[in-house]
Amino acid sequence: MRYAFNESDFMVSRKLISLYLTKAFDDGDEFIPWSSLKYLIGEAMYGGRVSDGLDRRVLITYCEEYMGDFLFDDCQKFYFSRAGHDYELPEWGGLESYTNMVETLPLVNGPAVFGLHPNAEIGYYTNATKQMWTDLIALQPRTGGAGAGMSREDYISGIAKDIRSKVPLESMDIGQHDLIIVREILKERNALRPPTPPQVVLLQELERWNVLVIRMAGSLEDLCKALVGEIGMSDVLDALGDALFNGRFPDLYRKLAPDTEKQLGSWMQHFTRRKTQYEAWIDEGEPACMWLSGIGVPESFLTAIIQATARARNWALDKSTLYTQVTPYRTTEDVPEALTYGSYISGLYLEGATWDPKRMCLRRQDPKVLVTELPVLQLIPTEVSKLKLQNTFKTPCYITQARQNAAGVGLAFQADLRTEEHISLWVLQGAALVLNIDT
């Protein structure tokens, strides 16, 4: 998240360093209280503004990597080479030696200076370009044709009818009244026993799905009528028409659908795939491999996996957790039969790193490859006291590439991914999993 760091934080930190160094010099101290300085600057001055645990991990890692005790190592000179420049401390001397060293520093620093992969710069400019085109499209005039002599109203009407044909309301595949039928199917499948935690998640998902498809069907029909003058054009329908014309996902549906950064075309493919997974879940039972991106509230499914296992093994729910393990399976079809305890999940994408299928661990990104798909992930419920991890990186999994907002919304779970590198590498490179990319 973005925090309101300002010039006063920097100035106070400088004064703290000046105070401690001056006192150490005046008193003739053999050692400088560097640990206290790091705590005051990193944990108090800057860390006091940080409210997110993962952001605090980044801040502490920066303190360790750039302000560590290695600065005082007499046996090894401070030196590192990044972004095509060799960085080192100036020789002991007067003001001139320090100013000469400052003059040799580059005016523009690349992402590598901050521990990021060069791909981070590509991602920054890509996002800036997308935002620029979004703004340009929004500034286009609302009159004129969309090509082949078609008027704007006819173009919007065609898009609305096409989307309406894909909304499963008349067929009642998963319609407003299907919940009664679904409950009967689940009751018969469970031999009259109460629904399992994953089945409760299914019912909750269908409730949200029903609200979305009813809103979509009603608004699209009203829009088509408003375009031909049968009813008045409201502000809501006008905004919906603009979104369809510009190919954007309408804000009217955004609060009822899983968080996404997709445009309209790719979102409709995601919508159709969600429908297919829900139908298979109803007809065939819980899938052996769950497409987690297609669940409206992924956290509820993950919690249900823990609940089901805790009930079966008589574990305390508050002392149970999920351990994750990357499998060699590349697609859902490769996954064997469903697990007795736990589950397989697919549809995860890796940013800031990539997965090495041979060594089964994280490795650095390839140039110009910003996002890669992670193999199928296995969820293993276990007791917290029995979980002993080594050589793993606690990787956050976010709903979208926008990651987490200031309200703390957007983090689905944290996965344990194997690594042969120090975790500071992946922290500074911003390694994370995402459920939904913008394409």
Overall description:
The radius of gyration is 27 Å and the shape is globular. The protein has 439 residues and is of the alpha+beta class. Strands 9-6-13-11-12 form a 5-stranded mixed sheet. A 4-stranded mixed sheet has the order 3-5-10-4. Strands 1-2 form a two-stranded antiparallel ribbon. Helix 7 packs antiparallel against helix 8 (197-227). The chain contains 13 helices and 13 strands. The protein has helices spanning 7-27, 34-46, 53-66, 95-104, 119-138, 152-165, 178-189, 197-227, 235-246, 251-254, 264-284, 298-313, 423-428, and strands at residues 79-82, 85-88, 289-291, 320-326, 343-346, 349-351, 354-356, 361-363, 371-373, 377-383, 392-400, 411-418, 432-436. A hairpin with a 4-residue loop joins strand 7 (354-356) and strand 8 (361-363). The two termini are 23 Å apart.
**How many DSSP E strands?**
13
Q: Total helix count?
A: 13
Largest sheet: 5 strands, mixed
Percent strand equals: 5-15%
First CA to last CA: what distance? 23 Å
Q: Indicate the percent of residues in helices.
A: 40-55%
> Which oligomeric form is depicted?
single chain
Poorly predicted regions are 171-175
Q: In what order do the strands lie side by side in the largest sheet? A: 9-6-13-11-12
Mean pLDDT score: 89
Could you say which structural class the secondary elements and strand pairing correspond to? alpha+beta
Overall morphology: globular
Structural Rg: 27 Å
Order of helices and strands: HHHEEHHHHHHHHEHEEEEEEEEEHE
